[in-house]
Task: structure prediction
Amino acid sequence: MDATFPSPHNTGRDGLDLALQREMQRGERVLWQGRPIPRVQPASFGIFLFAIPWTAFSLFWTAMAGWGAATAMEGEWGWIGLAFPLFGVPFIAVGLGMLSTPFLPLFTASKTQFAVTNQRLIKLTLGRSLSSETVPANRIGHIKRSERSDGSGSLTIAIRVGVDGDGDRSTEVFHLGEVANVLEVEQTIGDVVERDRRQRG
Result:
């Protein structure tokens, strides 16, 4: 095992592979690994469409507030008049964030790596710091596969079922994708789960 921590500035394949090597425990081996496909997410365009009027109104309100502040300065509003338009800035920032949502995978895919080992699922995200999310085999539950015509797709994996504060059933999930050959990944995970069940008797 390489004990060297991957540089936060190295977000390429080498940095992710090194991070994965560091995660490996004694007797653990990688059965499958892959990175998300950099693809625009059509499902997020609902947020994108909502963000258009939100952002437009925020820009309009901020511009009008700025114009009003500039006019009021003649009436000696001072710094209060200048600060008033700044209340619109957070709303503009939220709008821009929503507008970018469908396109985020184009920038984050190269910084994320998934792996299936003989013991668990792993998701690594390498940016300014390393984020590691793991799910042991005995916590893997129902798997829902979403597959495209080219064989790529995503998996939504139930890892914990419980009850929330209102008494309603809640399910914690692990998202894997979108990756190539998603059916192969699902089958690999199924084999890991079955092997774990046999070992535990």
